[in-house]
Design brief:
This protein has about 240 residues and is an all-alpha fold. The chain folds into 2 domains: about 110 residues, no CATH class; about 120 residues, no CATH class. Helix 6 packs antiparallel against helix 10 and helix 7 crosses helix 10. It starts with a helix and ends with a helix. The relative contact order is 0.08.
Length: about 240
Amino acid sequence: MDIYLIKLILAHLIGDFFLQPNSWVKDKEIKKIKSGKLYLHVLVHIILIFFVFFSFGVWKTALFVGILHLIIDVLKSIFQTKKNARILFFADQILHLCSIVLVWHLIYKGNLDISYFHKIKTWILISGAVFLTMPTSIIMRVIIAKWLPYSDSESPQSLQNAGKYIGILERLLIFIFMLTNHFEAVGFLIAAKSVFRFGDLKDAHDLKLTEYVLIGTLLSFGIAIVASFTVMELLK
C-alpha cells in the first residue's frame, strides 16, 4: 500500500477518534451546519495532514480532504436521528475512507490492487466466514429450538441478541485461529467461555438450561471447526 494513502488514513483516524471530544460531536448533532465545532473539526483534519506529511506543499491534498470531510459530516448531521445513528456512523466512516482514496488517486495517481478479489481462494475464505455468521446461527436455532428450556415470555433478562452475536464472534475467532495454525488459541477460547458459563449455570440450578447451553456451545464450536477444516482443505 502506498505511503501517501497510509498517512492520509492515519491523519483521519487521529482527527476523528483522538482529537474530537464528545462535546464537539454533540454540538454538531444539535447545531448541524451552524456548529462552530464542525468547522474546527475539519480544520484539525487539514492541520493533521500537514503534520503527517511534514510539509505545507500538500495544501491541495489537505484542502480537498477537508472539503469532502465537511460535506460528509454536514450530510450526516442533517440526516442523523436516534434510530439511524449507528448505521450512519459506519456509513460516515466508509464515505470518509472512500473520499481519502479518491483524493489519493487523483493527486498521487495511486491505484488499489484488487487482483486479490479475482482469486478463487479469496472467495473461499469469504464464503467460509459468511457461513459462520447468520447462516450458522439460523441452522443452530432450527436444530436446538425443540430443546429451548423456556418460552420467549419466560426467557431470562439479557442483552438483546447478545447470545447470537457472541456465537458469531466465537466462530469467526475459531475460523481465524485455525487458518493461521493457532490451534492452541481455540482451546483457550473454549476454556475461557467455559469459565464464564460455569458461574451462570451454577447459579441457575436448572438442568435443562445447563444441557441446552452445552448443546448450543458444542454445536457452535463443532460447526466452526468443521467449516474451518473444510476451507483449509479447499485452499490446498
